[in-house]
Amino acid sequence: MATTQNTTASDLSDAIDIGLLDPQKAEFYLTPGGFTGLKYGEADYKRITLRRALPIGQPMAYISVADHDNKEIGMIGAVSELSEEQRIIVTAELENRYYSPTIVEVKSVKDKLGYVYIELVIGREGHPYEKTCTVKDVSKNIRLLGDDRLIIFDVDGNRYLINSLSKLDKKSLSRLEPYMF
Amino acid sequence: MKKITIPEYMFPAFAAQGIDTSELIYAIHTDLVLDSEDTDVYMAVSKESLFVLCGVEKVAKTAGARRVTTVFEASKTEKYSLVELGKLSTERLLSTGRLYSEKDDAAKILLVFSVGFLADVERLIKVVKNIIEGRTPLEEIVVDDKLFCPKCGTRYPEPERKLCPKCMDKISITRRLLGFFKYYKNKVAIILITMLAGSAFAVVSPLIGTKFLFDDVLTEGGNYYGAILGAVGLILFVRAVHVTFNILFSYVLARTVPWIVYDLKLKIFEAMQRLSVGFYTSKRTGSLMNRVNRDANNIYWFFVDGFPYVIVNIITFTGVITLMCVLSLKLAIVCMVILPIAIGLFSLLWRVFRRFHHKNWVYNAQLNSMVSDSVNGQRVIKAYAREDDESKRFSEMGGKLADVDIKAINMEYTAFPLIYTFLFLGQVIVTAIGGMMVLNGEITLGTLLTFIAYLSMLYGPLEFMSWVSNWWARCVDSAQRVFEIMDAEPDIAEPDVPVVLDKIRGDIEIRGVKFEYDPATPVLKGIDLSVEAGKMLGIVGKTGAGKSTLANLIARLYDVTEGSITVDGVNVKELSLAQLRKSIGIVSQDIYLFIGTIADNIRYSNPDAGIEEVIRAAKIASAHDFIMLLPDAYETKVGAGGQDLSGGEKQRLSIARTILQNPNILILDEATAAMDTQTEANIQKALFNLQSGRTTIAIAHRLSTLRDADSLAVLSDGIVVESGTHKELMLKKGEYHKLYTIQLEGLKTINMED
């Protein structure tokens, strides 16, 4: 019975092709203006948009590639399947689109009338700098992603990421702890 | 709001790069240069060029200077000629945005910045556009320069709310709140008098019950030695008066505060009616509105349960301390050492408790959502046999809540006894020192016992005052939000001198209309359309093309960002709002029936209409037949908790309502979108009756319903891609032909299957 059900489910899923691009045929390139383009078979898309289907769980897999009019050309199954040169271009474009500063240290957290002011040290290629962000509705805007990652959304729409809570210093962690759910 | 050109602190940075600052017209500050160490960017525009300075901004204090200054260390300067730059645009990414130029099919990224600066960059683009098109550079550039609190320099958490949580003037907000008490002066006077008297008797009570009893009645040689009955009578009397005043105070308070909250809610509700649709749909105010009830309740409970006791406790505390000093200054000083420690301990404890309460509140909210999810989604849960998983999810969240509760209860059961033990130790110290003073004859036994009684009377006010400040802060925050709604100015304002036409004929001209709800996300990108009085214009297009937005702009529910809409040659912004709204009838798929009878709902557009007019309107709208089948017919209660009506029935009531309004301009916004074929046919008949002789703008995705329109416009991505009659557009074989053929094929397929 179980086998039959699985087969049926699989048949249904197979009925629609998710449109994976052939890594051998895809040639991503950088335009002189700094945009990312794609040559795929005969077609040349001069400006494409890359979007992650699973930005938190699998940020480097299932990447949707859309043209300038936001029409999907296809999906990259896994960035790792691309050649070194292609991978660098795709990764750079994804990092630009999904740029979220990484939090190195939490210097202070002050709660004032429902707004939480957080003084952060943000890492950037070994050049940390301080930034104060303001967070409203902490229960919504300070979110645990799994057990070890945390994301903070400030009132301007910026996102700040802690990639590993277990690697964060104890003081920073204790400052954030009351707001982590 | 004022127009600014260039912030002064930027001048030295531009001058240092050899840029003539006298030529600069406008400048902004952004951040983030992804591929370098730079964290700050200054961008400025002159009549010929765009300058981009990348670097690091530092706060420095020069020797001898009293104030700190901003120093910008530029590492890279770019200069672009405005003529050669091409068209500037922004693209919103996730938490960043980028500025790019387009010329001759080539696009170039100029800058990447944090998304918070998007509106600033958009304004800069507008300045560049004004310069290139030969307009005044700062035309239509309105800059809100008050992003930072002038007192402390903290950025306002929400730029639209000029509210700095650090410097919020709690006193003036409280004063404004207390202003609501002014209509109840007499009652407030009674409350204050009874409160003062009650507190005074409470403070005096130990003097009578202890000092007087021990020193004057029970001690030989006392002024009233042996007069036990008299003393007991006096003690009872003091107690009775104290309780009477307290009852009186609570009674009057309970009869006053609800009326004050009623006034407050009424003022909020009246303010809400004044505000524009945009106020309700914006994210910021959406959350504001949700909080209105909670805020009013916060204020209510603070004024019932908090504020009066602040006064009572302050009076008690001051009175007790004064009497302690009068009784024995030496012992009072000993107490002064204990009290600050007690205050510190209470404050610390409440801070810890607040954290637990917050966690408890969040987990409880999540648990409640889960229950609601489960109740509403029972069909789906059962259909996919996920009962066990749902129980597991609930159990996990329940476990988290239990953990927090256990910690909070443990803390309560251990910390409070410990604090009270500490306070008891203080009392022991006072008893020891006081005992020695009694033995030395410095004070009487009655004085010592009174002193100890007073000391224990201080703990209550201390504990209360250690947490009431947070309660007050929350109440002030709530009041601030409430006042914000009361003070909000509607986006759509009646002009100072509104034009009132004798009669609106219904000629509509839409010229170069652009509109965006959020910066950098244009919905309409330059629409030109016109419709003559009495004619019908059909607007078609895919979902999200901006069709409904256009309808809302004609009815002036929003104002255009650029361009103009005229009715009978008069800009809608100059027309009397009341006349405009009464002349435009909107039938949309979003129907709202108020709580009341069917007749009341039809009459909503014309409250003076008699029942015959209501029935006539219902008959024209093909609603009469189904209304008569309901047991209470036109007196059937509808709206929340009333008779359930189908979508088609509600729609016909809405059409009847519009018929009674008798508008000169009719907007049909997907009026039959969610109907089955038979219902749609009925409603089309009703709509046909309604349309005759009126200017009609009909929006529909079923193109067959628009075939008879005098003209049609096809909207795509915020622009009109085609216009003409049905016949013309079909012959053109463009976008309309494509949409029509797809729909026709779809219908054929359905017929074949049938």
Structure description:
The complex is a heterodimer of chains A (about 180) and B (about 750). With about 180 residues, chain A is α+β, with helices and mostly antiparallel strands. Chain A has two domains: about 1-95, no CATH class; about 100-180, no CATH class. Chain A has four helices and twelve strands; from the N terminus they run αββββββαβββαβββα. Chain A has helices at about 1-15, 85-95, 140, 170-175; strands at about 25-30, 35-40, 45, 50, 60-65, 70-80, 100-110, 115-125, 130-135, 140-145, 150-155, 160. In chain A, the strands form four sheets. In chain A, strands 1-2-3 form a three-stranded antiparallel β-sheet, with helices on one face. Chain A has a three-stranded antiparallel β-sheet with strand order 4-5-6, with helices on one face. Chain A has a three-stranded antiparallel β-sheet with strand order 7-8-9. The radius of gyration of chain A is 21 Å and the shape is elongated. The two termini of chain A are about 40 Å apart. Mean pLDDT of chain A is about 85; it is low at about 1-10. With about 750 residues, chain B is of the alpha+beta class. Among the domains of chain B are: about 10-130, Roll (PH-domain like), CATH 2.30.29; about 330-440; about 510-754, P-loop containing nucleotide triphosphate hydrolases (Rossmann fold), CATH 3.40.50.300. Chain B has helices spanning about 10-15, 80-85, 120-130, 170-180, 185-215, 230-275, 275-280, 285-325, 330-375, 380-385, 385-440, 445-485, 545-555, 575-585, 600, 610-620, 625-630, 645-660, 675-690, 725-730, 735-754, and strands spanning about 25-30, 40-45, 50-60, 70-80, 85-90, 95-105, 105-115, 510-520, 520-530, 535-540, 560-565, 570, 585-590, 595, 635-640, 665-670, 695-700, 710-715, 720-725. A six-stranded mixed β-sheet of chain B has the order 13-16-17-10-18-19, with helices on both faces. In chain B, strands 1-2-3-4 form a four-stranded antiparallel β-sheet. Chain B has a four-stranded antiparallel β-sheet with strand order 9-8-11-12, covered by helices on one side. In chain B, α5 runs parallel beside α8 and α18 packs parallel to α19. Chain B is extended. Classes of the chains: A alpha+beta (about 180), B alpha+beta (about 750). Chains A and B meet through β9 of A and β6, β7, α9 and α12 of B.
